[in-house]
Model the fold of this input.
Amino acid sequence: MAEKTEKKPIDPGQFLKEVRQEGNKVTWPSRKETGVTTVMVIWMTIIASLFLFSVDFIIQHLVRGVLDLFA
Done:
């Protein structure tokens, strides 16, 4: 059986200090990069939605046609 290790109490002040230090290490995107990425995500969502709608529409009519043949 694995040994249990005793957890040390967490100092909230030290934790917040470490969070701030890690946040400063992150390379954040610029406002322009964020805007461009947002627009691209919206366009790709629209394109994917149209594609899936088209495929669903085609399959629906194919299945309906096959069922009409046998009904």
Q: What stands out?
A: The chain has a mean pLDDT of 93.
